[in-house]
Batch of 2 targets.
Target 1
Amino acid sequence: MFPASGGARLGYRTTKAIRFAKHGCTNRPFYHIVVMEKRKSRQGHVIEQLGTFDPLVNVHGEKLCSINLDRATYWIGNGAHISLPCSILFGLAGLLPIHPSTYIKAWRNRKAATNAEGETESTSSS
Amino acid sequence: MLPLSRTNILTGGCIGRIWYPVGEAAVSLGGVQVVRWRKPRWLPTAKSRLFTVPKRPVIPAEETREIQRLFNNYRTSVRAVRHHLLEEYLRTSATSEVALQQVAEEEAEHQRLMEYNRMENERIAALREIRIKKELEDDLARVAASKQKLAEQAAIRQEEALRIITETQELVKTFINRENLEKAIENALANPVDYNSAIDQEGYIYRGRNTKVQDIPEEDREKLARASQ
């Protein structure tokens, strides 16, 4: 049994991927940011754990995340692929440039917010 | 929607191979909702949605252009970052402190092991010398002992042979030849030897063919020595 924190055999020319491994239980997901061979299953044997991500908001209104920047840069330098959610997270953290989907989500939220404001104004004024 | 899979879904939950297809509906960065039932491909479309036309999402043109521009820039930047990190890794992998430390450690370990090996060899060589010397001494002693034993046995045999020879020589003098024959016969006839004897229950022996018990007085009687004495 390999721990979720790493220790799997390193293949010589296999594709490695930095991605989320979902742990936790029902209605309570929790992600480990993990380096593993791309074709292993999501909860398969992990080469190294680079951090965690908690998608649920805590009491202070924060989504907590941790990243081992040193090791993450090492693995990217070693040619590891990065999954989409991981790229977005790294962009927000500052390791990579900000992902376009962050901007898209932001302006769509803004548009939705202005539309809602406009509607409430129009309903209140009319 | 992620593609369906029949066999390797839910490895964490350990369901095993299931006959009905199960799909995963991914909710962006929030989690995954597992759908227990999905319509098999051989069932025809439901009557209620036979003629529905799915609504195409409309993205305005300038948004599309903006998205394309953003993605192009992003991919360029990410490629640059990757290249840079790769170069850094290649540069520091051979000369980094960790690598050098490892090399130094390995070298030290190797030297230590070689030294240990040398000491062991010396120790064992000394023991071996002692053992060989001892074995040699044992061999020599054994050989000397056996030689001595053989010599002793030879001496004993020699003595025995000599004894037999002298005895026989003595005996030869008593042999009767043609010259001695008549003399021997005359001797024999002149000196008859009487081996007859009688014993009684008290153990007295009366020698002679013609001796009677009454003739010998009691003090002169010869007591036969016991075989056990």
Note: Chain A is about 35% helix and 25% strand.
Target 2
Amino acid sequence: MKTVSLGANRPSAVKFRMPTRDNLVPIRVDVEVDGQRYRDAFTWNPSDPDSEIISFAKRTAKDLKLPANFVPQMLHSIQGQLAEFRSYEGEEMQIREKIVPLKIDLRINNTVIRDQFLWDIGNLDSDPEEFARTLCDDLNITDPEVGPAIAVSIREQLYEIASQSVSAMREARVSKKGRRAPEFASNSKAMHNSLDLFKYFGSKGSVVRKRKEWYLYEPVVDVARKEEVGAIDATEELSSRNA
Amino acid sequence: MSPPAAGAASSGEAPPRELYTIPASSGWFRWDEIHETERRALPEFFGGAGGSGFGTASRNPRIYREYRDYIISKYREDPSRRLTFTEVRKALVGDVTLLRKLFAFLDASGLINFSASPSRPAPQKKPDAEAILEAPVGLQVTPRPPASYFVEERGGGGGENGFRLPPLTSYSDVFGEWAPGRGPICGFCGEECSDGSVQTLKDGFKVCSNCYANDESTGEANKHLGDKKERADNHASSAWSDAETLVLLEGVLKHGDDWDLISQHVRTKNRSECIARLIQLPFGEHMLGTINGKSDSKLHKNQTTERKVDKYIVKESSSQPTETVDGMQIDENKNDTDKSNEERPTKHRRLFSSIDPTVSLMEKLVLLTTSSSPDVVAAAADAAIKALGNENPLARKAFHLSEKEYRTRAFSSICARQGDGIVGGQDAEMLGHSVPGNKKGKMFISTTYQVRAAVATALGVAAARAKMLANQEEREMELLMASIIETQAPSFFCMLMSMTSCKLDDSANGPA
């Protein structure tokens, strides 16, 4: 695995944050109380005051007609995820241009969507919401819940990558391997994830993909029939219980 | 639109030159160059803000041109269709955010999608004209309710045995043939107003220009709720707020059937609006029935006091089967039964009237008996008399029936009629003036039996009707159950299938 030296591609260190234009944290909640299940995924602004979390949880429970004993668990879940985010916040992370493939494999109501695309995690100007919006518009997806679900999924993947690099750095520092080591470590760890840029961006390559590979990077959307939705739900739950 | 540079790509071949029409504003574009506009718009490719550098390995002018050329050529393969970002990004290697930015730049500067159909329009907003036609919250245009509605209203009261319920309105009655999208309906003549001729009167009526002209001349009086003119019904009122509805209900409970008082109580709405609103409420019909029931019993009381004799009512009701059994014209009793065949109001009506303690027993019995068709009443009377006869031989005497007649099962309605008629006649006699003493005892006994017969008849009739209603309910329930099952069955079967296949998979993989 060669280290790609891409000339001006020097890493710069910034405070940990979501590598997107809006620093929004993806939150996923999955609470089960008395046989009732509440699953949800949304984005949260970490600079919002914590009192907002409580009012959000209460309001959600009221809107969805959930019993009141959902609220503490929801609260706990959301606060936990936010706390984890905040624990990274003091750290520094290396920001450099790194193109990684992101995947989408979601089922929202009766729409199934699978997709793969390349994302530069060093591009602090990226916008998952806009990407999701464009995707839904281009594919004529009418269900308004699909876009936000895609955006949250993207954010989750970005968050994971970002936090991985931070924790890798932390480890490296702890093990006292010296200054250069972090770069190496993060490089080598991420190599299998990130794109072999040289192949494409080098002087002999082309950024236009071969036609036969197009299908890999094309979104696939499937809309299930109404009756099937109940069946799909049930099978998923079964498999998740067995797993 | 200026004719462009040649359409051929920068390859060496010389295909037939195709002319593309591109917007004049993008005339600066050249295939083999990168224009200043591009550098400024996408500095990432050109080494930062200045746009003069050479960027990084993955973002440099060469790469930029590859992206750009690909996208534009892709579009030009079919200029009439709108090229979407999703289509191109599958073929391009690179950060999607950056590609998106590039794509947006090309789109905005007219280099792609310039002759494509416009993108999907934003969620349809109602065109302005519709705002008037569809009458959002502030307006409510209602055409004249069917004329019969108000005739019934005023026709009620004395002279009828029962209060005539107005025919229950359906959507088409209340709104006539008005449908969304049609023009506003004139409040006076009930016709659709052609565009532009809608005038609004002081009260908020919407009228067509003809009626407006007429109205001007006839003056204020017409705009009021004249009993004579039914136009008053079409007051384009404001929507009913919760508070107003509450006040309306209060008024109805307090004033019952007196719509003038009610509309006074609800100060902001006139009487036709009150009525219309009440009907539209889910339980409105019940309330109407209730109100009618109350006035019903009042009615009977009036009749009683008029004629001063309770028993006459029995006579009247018993004479009614006579008339109708002959199959003659629709008489009052028939009307009663027709209307009272409409179920729920009648149910409640009965309930209310029977609770009222000021109504005499006979009146209640009469009410009960009128709830079914005269044949049923006759049959019930037969059965009642027969049952009483079984109980006590004296009863038979009271009903002046011969043994032979009694035993024949085929109790013709004539007998019943006779029996009832005798009942009535004897009552009249009895309540007449002096009665010979020796007859008195007999009279007394027979009166008792008559009363009992009447009660039994009424009960029989009520029972018959109840059974009928119960059957109906049951059929309804069956129907609903069937439709539920029908709807649920497909999803249930689907789940079953998937479960089965799941199980099969599990068992196949399990032991292995």
Note: Chain B touches chain A through 36 residues (CB under 8 Å).
